[in-house]
Amino acid sequence: SVSNIVPESCLLIVVGLLVGGLIKGVGEKPPILNSDVFFLFLLPPIILDAGYFLPLRQFTENLGTILIFAVVGTLWNAFFLGGLMYAVCQLGGPGLNHIGLLANLLFGSIISAVDPVAVLAVFEEIHINELLHILVFGESLLNDAVTVVLYHLFEEFATFEQVTIIDIILGFLSFFVVSLGGVFVGVIYGLIAAFTSRFTSHIRVIEPLFVFLYSYMAYLSAELFHLSGIMALIASGVVMRPYVEANISHKSHTTIKYFLKMWSSVSETLIFIFLGVSTVAGHHYWNWTFVISTLLFCLIARVLGVLVLTWFINKFRIVKLTPKDQFIIAYGGLRGAIAFSLCYLLDYKHFGMRDMFLTAIITVIFFTVFVQGMTIRPLVDLLAVKKKQETKRSINEEIHTQFLDHLLTGIEDICGHYGHHHWKDKLNRFNKKYVKKCLIAGERSKEPQLIAFYHKMEMKQAIELVESGGIGKIPSAVSTVSIQNINPKTLPVERILPALSKDKEEEIRKILRNNLQKTRQRLRSYNRHTLVADPYEEAWNQMLLRRQKARQLEQKMNNYLTVPAHKLDSPTMSRARIGSDPLAYEPKADSENLPIITIDPASPQSPESVDLMNEEPKGCGGLPPSPEEDEEGLVMRVKEPSSPGTDDVFTPGTGDSPSNQRMLRCLSDPGPRPEPEEGEPFIPKGQ
């Protein structure tokens, strides 16, 4: 119940204090945390565990933010703290006047770096969300290069009689050599470890040994040349993991995982216990002004650095860092055993104030670990900061993640913007085409990423079933591949595809060709959310409707049109038709006063005896009559069929439309002659 309130690191320091007090109480000299023991044996397991199981996706997506916090933030803290402490020493009285600017800058570089061991110990207990965890933890890992450079730089400058501009420029360039050199050493050893694991299929027992051996060699090689050993370890773990896990057996993978976790946990425990013991056993020189000023300026520098850098970073980030996130990042800047060990390495000859530096550093470590480490969990709950979701990743999430990666890469290519998705895609293609073939044995090098992820999930599910004792009641959802992989049998014979005959192959090609051709000719599908009105679509529809009606009308005409079309009838015949079917014609609006001739069909006078003088021009020729003629005679106008809309694509002339031509043909052809016995001289209506 105590560990729910107090972090484990605090409890371990308390245990160390008690053990140191007991050892001192019985008259023995307590052991002190030796810097060589710390840097060579206790620190590498913790960093290797963090680098090997680093969440690579979150780390790479936030790499720019992490680098700004790690490099610019650490430089700001070191110089801000060193400069202010130099001012305090000049104003602090006779006990501090002898401390020069280089000594204060060295002290600032030691105390300014965030400690990865303390951050891991505290942040893994409060289960903060992935973004904040990777920002603070990534900063604590990558600021090692800045700390190493500044530490060795000021340590060397302290021995110089005069520091020149060339020395400062060389010191600035050494930062790139230390950081990039450490990464290069780690990548080389990671590739060697991956290549070696390709040939260990017959000696599975020593597979985990290669991972630890090459990682430790990367760390030692980097430290040998004063490069960043922490960055070398991280680079080697990140590079070797995907290839090593594809080559080694599952038992070896389990061994690596649990041995690294156990090794890092033991190292972390020993570090915090030794911190407590060394506090009791070490030589201390307490100066209230120096210690309180150090603690106060550490907090001020951290808060100011986070606020200013976050204001600058948010201008370029899509997911902005909120004020709550900034508070957690500033509050999570814990100091730990790395600062203590670096200060313990100082030489009394050049730094006579080492005991006072150690006292101030231990005070800052205790304050950050106890006060900030104990209060960060209630503050996270109080501010309602998003917690880490303890859910396993599903294949559905993997599919959508890959889909979004491809989509964003395509969008970047279309826009001509070479962002990190573009370079990530390039790197993945190069890795798949060249690197995997060299570093992964067998068919696993050609396996798609989704299939590999599926096999990994299947393996985890099968192991959980075996560990829970449910091997006898395996659900149908679990494939037998997972169970077979637990106890691998002899390698199956490579499956040979049956050879197809030429006829069968041609038939398959024909089927595919026909179906693909049909697929290409398929009409576009529309969505009601994306449907855009086509300006030509309505006109085409109207034209198709008119053509269809014209065909129907032509079919009807063919039923009774048995003779060729004659010229237009005389006006007398037209009058007769008006009288027989007055609904087919209508007079003009301005011709209400014109006389209407009504023909009685029963009249003995035949239509041929009507006087035809001055009436023929009014109804023949299709010419528009003049106003004078409108006043003198009868005006006829044929009703045109109403159309559903206007035709913007095909608009014929007034007298050229098919309906007008067919109507004129109807009027000019009376159809078959009536039989003599019928006695009807006119065409019946509706025929």
From TrEMBL:
The chain crosses the membrane at residues 6-25, 37-54, 66-89, 101-122, 134-154, 166-196, 216-239, 260-282, 288-314, 326-345, 357-380. One of its GO terms (biological process) is sodium ion import across plasma membrane. It comes from the Eukaryota. Residues 478-562 form the Sodium/hydrogen exchanger regulatory region domain. InterPro entries: Cation/H_exchanger_CPA1 (IPR018422), Cation/H_exchanger_TM (IPR006153), NaH_exchanger (IPR004709), NHE-1-like (IPR001970), NHE_CaM-bd (IPR032103). It catalyses: Na(+)(in) + H(+)(out) = Na(+)(out) + H(+)(in); Li(+)(out) + H(+)(in) = Li(+)(in) + H(+)(out); Li(+)(in) + Na(+)(out) = Li(+)(out) + Na(+)(in). The keyword ATP-binding does not apply. Signal peptide: none annotated. Residues 598-687 are annotated as: Disordered. Residues 6-380 form the Cation/H+ exchanger transmembrane domain. Belongs to the monovalent cation:proton antiporter 1 (CPA1) transporter (TC 2.A.36) family. This is Sodium/hydrogen exchanger. It comes from Aramus guarauna.
